[in-house]
Amino acid sequence: MGGSAPRGGCRLPVETTSFVDRREEQAAGRELLAKARLVTLTGPGGVGKTRLAAHIASRVERAFPDGVRYVALAGLRDPELVPLAAADALGLHDHSDRPPLDALVERLRDRRLLLVVDNCEHLLAACAELAAALLRGTTGVRVLATSRHRLGLTEEHLMEVRPLPVPDPDGDLSAAGSHPALALFADRAAAVLPGFRLTPANRAAVVRLCRRLDGLPLAIELAAVRMRVLGLDQLLARLDDRYRLLTAGSPAALPRHQTLRAAVDWSHELCTEQEQSAWAHLSVLPGSFDLETAEAVCRAQAWTEGGCSGPVSAEGVCRGPAPIEGRCSGSVSAEVAHRGPVSAEGACRGPVSAEDGCSGPVSAEAVCQRSASAPAVCQGLAPAEAVCRGPAPAEAVWQGPAPAEAVCRGPAPVEAVCRGPAPAEAVWQGPAPVEAVCRGPAPVEAVWQGPASAQVGCRGLGSVDILEAVAGLVDKSVLVREDDPDGGGARYRLLDTLRHYGLDRLRERPGAEVAVRRRHRDRTQRYAAACEAAWFGPGQREIVARLRADRDNLRAALDFSLATPGEALAGLRLAGTLWFHWHACGAPREGRYWLDRALDANPEPTPERARALWVSALLAGSPEDLTRGLRRAREARALAERLGDPAEAAHADYVIGVVQLFADDLTAAHAHYETTVARGPVPGQHLSLHGLDMVELACAHAFLGRPDRATAVCEQALRLCEAHGEDWVRSYVLRILALAHAVRADWPRAEPCARQALRRKLDVHDVIGIGLTLDLLARIADGLGAAERTAVLLGGADRVWSDIDRDRWGSTALNSARRACETSARAALGPAGYERAYGRGGAFGLAEIVAYALDEELQEPEKQPELRMSPVRLTRRETEVAELVAEGLGNQQIADRLVIARRTAEGHVERILGKLGFSNRSQIAAWVTARR
Question: In whole angstroms, what is the distance from residue 706 CA to residue 823 CA?
Fold first, then answer.
């Protein structure tokens, strides 16, 4: 069973612009972390909490031997995913069915690390539960959270992040450049207007602008981007107009959230129509995305059940057939009438008698009102303001151009059609029982909103328009461009504040959010299917990296499907398509979460359910979960056979054998895989699973003491992998080949195969495979008589397995081999020698233990040079350290208290001893006591 973790841990947010110096806040944050295990940075949106937290974390990173890990929550909506997101950030891959929070705390019990939990405000209860569990269940984990609201724990220490201070515009501005708000504006303005700098001539205007923006960093950045096209005075004038509109003349001071809203509104208005549309569409993506995803989400497509049909005229008219004789008639003659009930084929034409309604031209203020129990058409040319009102239980149609403002209002329970170009503004409004929003440009704005159970054509953004819109949003600092750290090209993301603004805009159009989220889900399904099809091939590393980068968007697509009526089957399909991601890319627990939800929502016997059942069984990797896994795998096979789907039945067969193998039923597993391998791949079966059939057969042979048969099967599997340029299954084949050599005690041949397997597993981040291969390399080292190396490898392997399952799924075959190695190494090294070597391996990180196993050179951190100073006085930090020495604290305890590295604490103590001419810590304590 495979699993993987992010390479090198979870990175802090990538910074694409310079950071405005917040020295006092950084120092205060570090001091709080020195005395508290839970620190929450609070403040309004756009004030800079995330960046400040990242800088504080980077400054104290050396104080945490197990590092700093970053948990981004902005893209999560489900509180149950909070502990899974934390585990993902920590690279932990628990396979058990225990509560996720309990498993997380157990894994971190002996760790010393800082966990940065960003954007907690919408998941407060879940974040508080996470923090409380970590504080009370561990001793070395500290939490730095960001939130607009406090978590509410008694252990919590709050630090308010305030807007940047701005000087008095009427005061002394000679040192204005030293103020961070002004420095921020100047830096961002210079990025879009090369050569811009603060001068005596413009300082006062910049100060007034920053003061008007309340010193909010995000608002200042959005304003600075406008320097590309506007001067400072124009910026101030337009900003004042915006505030007057917001406050309606109120003399009260503006709340900060209103300040930010004003800045974002203003930025939105200065975007083109295409950019505004893209902003709204892209707001459904909580994570970063590439251009292809942006194109799929924003591309023109009807947001209705029937798809996009019907031409779009040059004027931006939206046309499409209505089920019952809907007619498009353009402009009409001067005689305008409203006629009473008509037949389905009828239309309203020409003047009618008085008793039927109004006839003749409609005056500027005329109102045409009528209830229609059948199809009714209101047509006319309205010189100024014409309003057509009235409920239409069947079909209500408003047709014809309106020189000024024409409004047609009223509910349309079935179909409603609004047709015709509008030189100014034409709006049709009403509730939409089905999602439908069709927008097409008229000379100014033409909007059609409402239901269309048939096809409705619409005009949207094409690929060129989307590229230009994305580029424009990047230029305007709405989108942040990021380089993919794994070399996948440019990616983009919306800052959380701007994303929520875009969602608000999208929700103004009835049905739009559901339609765009569905489009994103469908795009995700197509991409997941393409990745699955390509998985048994040469691009696996790229697929792993891309899916990890897209994990927030995957979650959004799954959550939409399982939380929206009528979409559950699509959610089941997507969760099942991602089997290789859950299994091979280190997300088994999250995979089970989504699959369990999807299976509960889809009890019907479908091919999607058959797949989801065996995938869920495949992810059952702990002893307590194997029984349920076997039951589900057998249910999947039976359902697939009943539906006539041999591929899914074959996939379920693979899982049945895996459960038997790790449940130590070796004879049954061997017979099972003999049958499946002899049968060969069935039509539609994924080649990865066929290759794994051969891997497990070879494994059963090796466990049963038949190395020659195991080798023959491995050679067959290697040929299959090499023919397709595949690495993940090949790494398992190489491991079993090494195991077969080990069974023969042919250690010189076993070691190179195991090392090749380990290197490939690191390439695809297969953590479970790394644990299995380290166990095997320890066995090989024991066979070669290298006792110390055996102990180091066992320590490293146990450290890796502690993030998966300490009991190695309860497998007798795996655990007996490990115990034999430990017994042999202890006998050779003695208890003390073994513990030293074992502890050394356990202190290694993942990359370090792999490098050790491969005999590659480790990158040792550079030793900090000691600073020899005058023996007369101690620095402030040295004085703090001396006081703690006098309290009886050891170096590690001093490091914990001051949030510094142990090596740094040791250096301080050594320098204190040197300065004071002492030889031991007791003398330091006596010196401190004498000075009190």
Answer: 25
